[in-house]
Amino acid sequence: MDAVDSAFAQLDTSPRQSQPSSAPPSSSSTQPSQSSSPVELITTDQLFIFFPHFSTIDLVCKTMPKPETDSDVVFCCEAAFTGELMLDFKHSNIADPHVSGGQWYKGYTCKANTGAFMWYNSSWRFAKKPVDLHPVADKGGMAFCQRLLILDGKTQPMWERMRKNKTQYRALCEKDHRLCIIESKNVITFERFISLLEQQHVTNAIYLDMGRGWNYAWYRSSDDKVEYLHPLIQIPFTTNWLTFKR
User: Fold this and answer.
1) DSSP annotation string for 18-35
2) Which residues on neighbouring strands pair with residue 150, listed in sequence order?
3) How far apart are CA 198 and CA 29, in angstroms?
4) b/e string for 81-103 if b means 16 or more Cβ within 10 A?
């Protein structure tokens, strides 16, 4: 199973500075949850929007963080594509170059990926491929490659065969100068998901692996209560996770 099948068969370049977690969302069509929560949840008719309150971000590989032992993690979900269904972990089974724990890894070449997300020096950056991730590792940051959806306010081209693919979609986004994870509430087409991101005035967005079995995720709500997303469909082959940390 290649990277395209795992996700789609079922279905300005300068760094941005991290914004204070108290900055309010500007969308008048949304309803924010308690602001004291580690992750602020906003809902619309068709979307869940998660704003983690964080101090750093990492790409955790091999073993998924657990809420019981990783108390510094406030949001965790699958990030880059996994190539083959393997029980043994290899960085070469993660799509394209990536940086985890400040270390650069080659990964395997994935034609579905068109961009990358990077975090270093308390700043983030979305960029088109090709992009050199070695400097991110030199700065002790994190990075991964994925399908770029929106860059600097411009919707990126999509393959024609992707438009009508249906699933629940998830993306890492920049909205109102803040990072967030946006997920569709229901099964929709890929084309519709992009349209909903546009309606939310998302300025940057990169896909997160959301194929069946890769959609399991968790976050902390009020009083550090752990909330699970799609907890009933877990598989042992996932390889890497986007993690927001306190």
Assistant:
1) PPPTTPPP--TT-EE--T
2) 155, 205
3) 14
4) bbbeeeeebebebbbbbbbbeee
